[in-house]
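The instructor's notes for this session suggest beginning with a concrete chain rather than abstract definitions. Hand out the sequence below and ask the class to guess, before any prediction is shown, which regions might be ordered.
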Amino acid sequence: MAYPIYILIVFLCFSSISIAQGVFSIDGDKNKFDLTFQSVNDLVVIPVEINGVELTFLLDTGVDSSIIFSLEDKDSLDVKNVSDITLRGWGEGEAITAIKSTGNNVRIGNASHSNFTVYIVYDHQISLSNRLGLPIHGIIGYDFFKDFVVEFDYIKERLTAYKSDSYVYDRCKRCDDFDLIFHKNKPYIKVLVNIDNDDLLPMDLLIDSGSGDALWIFEAPDLGIKIPAENFEDFLGFGMGGSVYGKRARLNNLKLGKFQLKEITASFPDTLYFEGVTTYESRNGSLGSQVLKRFYSTFDYNNKRLRLKPNKNFSDTFEYDMSGIVLAHEGFTVVKDFENNDSAVFSESENDFKGVVVYKSYSKVKFKLAPQYVIAELRPNSPAALAGLKIGDLVETINRKPAHRYELSEINKMFSSEEGRTMRLKINRNGEILNIRFKLKRIL
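After discussion, reveal the predicted structure:
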C-alpha cells in the first residue's frame, strides 16, 4: 500500500499582485501537449525555462503569481524590466521586498510565452529546496492554468495541457464535476466536512496543490468549526513568511460531491501566522495534494470547472508521520563510491588457457559528493524525541544503509510506513557518533 505523507506545506499567500499579461501558445498550432512531472512528497514539480535558463518550479493551484525565490546556482538569469514590490506571506516573518520583472520569455514543455511577469525574491531564503531534497527555484500557478485545460495523472506523473477552446469532455460515470469559485485568481471549491461526530458542515476550501497536507481548516467556533479534542501540536510547514505551527487532528470524513474520504487528516494553523494576510472572506481552509493525488483531475479555469475521477490511490489510508522527524537537506559530504567492472579478455598466452576467454574483475574507488540530512524539526514526545534524537543531528545511516543513498522523499515515506516498524539511526552530534533506535507509532 502506498502511504500518504505529510512533509511540507508550500503555502504562499500574497496580496493581489497579478497583472494582465499575454498567453502561452503551443508549438506548431497543436491543440495539446504532454509534460512529465516529478511528484515529490505529493507536490508537482515541473521544468520551466526562463530567458533560456532551465529552472525547476512547483506547479501550484494555490498561487496567483509566479515567484522565483532561489537563484543560488542560476545567477546568470537575465530578467527584464524590473521594479520593486512588497510581498506578504504566511509564517513568522515580516513582509519582504521582491523584484517584479516583465517581458520575459518562458517555456513549459511545448508551450511558450513571450511577455511573462515574474516576481523575484533575492534577499530572503525560503528553504524549499532543502526540505524537498532537490533544487526548487520558484512556483507557478494561475499564469499557467489560465491558458489551458490541464489533466493530471498522479499515477503516471504526467499532465496534459489542452487549448481551452478545443477541449471536449468525455462521458464518465465515475467522474464528478464541480463548479469553481475564483477569488483573486485562486480556485475554491464547496465541500462538506464531518469534524467530530457532528453534522456535515459546509466549507469553502482553496484548492491548493502546493500543500503537502490533506486539509487545512481555520478554526471558527461561531460556525461550528472546532478543533477535535484528540489533537497534537506540530510544525505544519514552511511558507513565504517562515515556519507555521498549529494543531493536527483526524476528521470523520470529507464529502467531495459524490465521493467520501474517511478518517482524513487535517491541520489547524494558529491564527497569528495569517494575521495581515488578505484572503477570500468565506474561506474555511485548503484542500491539498494528499486529497488531489487520489484522483485523475481536470482543471478548467476558463469554464470554472473541475472534474475528479478516483484513481488507485483513492482508498489509501491517511497517515501522519510516525517518527516525529522532519529532515532537511543540509549541504553535501564526500563519500567513497566503488565502481565495479567485469571485462572479458581473449587470452593469447602460451599456457593451457591460450584461446580461452578470461573474465577480469576489478573495483575502482571514486569519491563523490552526497547529500547530507539533518533533523530540522522534532515533534515533542514523539518516538524519535523520546529516543533521544535532537534538532541539528546529522543522520548518517538509516537501518544500516547510508542515508545519502535515499532520496529525501523515500525517507519520509519510510517514517510514515508502518506502525511498530523499528528504525535504527546512526547520527553525528557535534562529532560524536550515536546509535539510536525507536519504533514508529501512529499518533492518532
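Then share the key points. The CA atoms of residues 10 and 210 lie 5 Å apart. Residues 325-439 form a domain with the Pdz3 Domain fold (CATH 2.30.42.10).
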